[in-house]
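Field log, afternoon session.

UNIT: design team B
ACTIVITY: writing a sequence onto a fixed backbone
BACKBONE:
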């Protein structure tokens, strides 16, 4: 399961069109509203919540990632998805790749 949450509005990636991501982020920026996007990936032995934008994170120590999780995190870092300003094109490209898990 891959889900995306934009400022608390969470949807299954299979149920949305990529324009929803672009339009929602654009509308929030136009309203000068801070944007927090969280991509949740729960597939096989991968269980991640990846933040983009102005997301509050709680302190804590995550367990050592397994090899599949490390692969996803490496791809996330390579694509620079979490870099600011938010780039919805990178988010969409990342999600498309993750659907192939």
């Amino acid at each position: 399961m891959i889900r995306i949450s934009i400022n608390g509005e969470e949807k299954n990636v299979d149920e949305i069109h990529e324009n929803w991501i672009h339009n929602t982020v654009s509308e929030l920026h136009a309203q000068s509203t801070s944007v927090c996007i969280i991509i949740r990936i729960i597939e096989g032995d991968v269980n991640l919540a990846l933040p983009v934008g102005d997301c509050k994170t709680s302190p804590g120590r995550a367990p050592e990632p397994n090899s599949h999780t490390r692969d996803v995190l490496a791809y996330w870092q390579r694509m620079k998805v979490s870099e600011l300003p938010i780039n919805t094109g990178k988010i969409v490209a990342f999600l498309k790749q993750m659907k192939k898990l």
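LOG NOTE: The first strand starts at residue 2 and ends at 6.
NEXT ACTIVITY: expression trials, pending approval
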